[in-house]
Amino acid sequence: MFIKGVNLGNWLVLEKWMSPALFDGTMAEDEYYLPTQLSRDAYEARIKIHRSEYISERDFATIARIGFNTVRIPIPYFIYGDRPPFIGCLEELDKAFSWAEKYGLKILVDLHTAPLSQNGFDNGGICGVCKWSQTPEEVDFVVELLGKLAKRYGHREGLWGIQPINEPITDPMWSEMDVPGRYPPVDPELAAGSAPNTMEFLREFYNRAYDVIKPELGEGKYVVFHDGFRLKDWKEFLTQEKFAGNVVLDTHQYLMIAEAYGCEQTLEGYVEYIREHYAKDIAEIQEYVPVVCGEWCIFNSLAVGMDTKGGQSSLNGVDFKDAATVSEEDKKAIYNKISEEQLKAWEKGSGYFYWTYKMLLDPTNEANWRGWDCWDVAKSIDLGWFPPTV
User: Fold this and answer.
1) What is the C-alpha separation between 92 and 12, in angstroms, rounded?
2) Phi/psi at 60 (nearest 5 deg)?
3) Could you give the C-alpha distances from 300 to 169, 244, 280, in angstroms and in order?
4) For residues 26 and 101, what is the distance between their CA atoms, to the nearest angstrom?
5) pLDDT at 271
């Protein structure tokens, strides 16, 4: 099956930039510190209301109608409610499986966060901290959690696969993104010793994760490994006999990162980069393992009207109020061409998952968010920026 998927970002794993109002009245920049700055009752009410309203059965019906066939659902390490003060969300994932099966959709369960974080990103749960792989008991916790999830969902009709961990950062990406600088930690003492994951650790962890997940999976279901931002470094590992026909490689490709690598911020520059890097690299990897682009979108600095410095937002202190005005006609032309070229690139592999299905931003009234609404694929389709049927 060729995957035409979408991420349900910011539903069970919060990202402040996607729904800033959730963090109103606090100084928290990530999910780790949110419950520390609200009363217990206020925190529980805010989270429960968000989860019940942000994604519902109606959204699954819409996703299927649009033409997607799979959803990637980011989940937190505290999904079972066993890591206070965080609130579990197993009930929501159970509902998602019932909705998916009703509307003929498949699910990729994506463990998006780990204790002490696997990347130091805001979407890794806690900014500026990356110590999970250095903490054996927390690695064991995650392996055990993956086994529990596999037993619970491994034979569900709606399951397509389980992803052991999202975006475990390695060098050189750690250095190139300057993670501690881009995501400054609240507690320097807690962050002390943070460092990228090694490839040796990832290979060992992926072997352990596979060994607890695969025995619980029904036929035609996969273990999905993220590439750690090193797409071409996995051939020897992934061609092990035990993985044959059972694993998929996940790579995340954003034009904002391409810009940070020097991609020219013109339509011609984007098209050339997509063809020369995305399409060719995906085709090369697909020769020995199925590969999907698990996160991508049409966001780019050209359509924003100024350099976003690798996709940094007003939350990173970048002011976009003076960005050049890009006409709706020009913006549509940019997005249409970038959509077309990236979709062609993913066809060289086994599919894609757009990031993301929806967001709660108001770019019409808040100048600093103008140009950011294209991350919302449902809105992008409505505005004619993205093909109406995927």
Assistant:
1) 8
2) -65, -40
3) 22, 37, 21
4) 38
5) 98
Secondary structure element (H or E) that encloses residue 250, with its range:
strand 247-252
pLDDT digits (tens, 9 = 90+) for 143-177: 999 999 999 999 999 999 999 999 999 999 999 99
Contact 340, 267 (CB under 8 A): no
319 pLDDT more than 90: no
Query: What pLDDT score does 8 carry?
Result: 98
Q: What is the pLDDT of residue 209?
A: 98
DSSP 3-state of 339: helix
Residue 180: pLDDT over 90 = yes
Residue 322, pLDDT above cutoff 80: no
Q: Please, where are the H alpha helices in 3-89? A: 40-54, 57-66
Count of all residues that appear for the chain in the document: 390
Rounded CA gap, 275 and 338, in Å? 11
Q: Are 138 and 116 in contact (CB under 8 A)?
A: yes
Q: For residues 307 and 328, what is the distance between their CA atoms, to the nearest angstrom? A: 19
Q: d(Cα 12, Cα 141) in Å, to the nearest integer?
A: 19
> What gap in Å lies between CA 9 and CA 75, rounded to an integer?
9
Given a contact cutoff of 8 angstroms between Cβ atoms, the answer to whether 289 and 274 are in contact is no
- Average pLDDT, stretch 290-309? 95
Quick one: which of 147, 247, 253, 141 has its CA closest to 203? Answer: 247
d(CA 384, CA 368): 22
**Residue among 384, 378, 331 nearest 355 (CA):** 378
- pTM of full prediction above 0.70: yes
Amino acid at 132: W
Per the listing, tokens 């959690």 go with 145
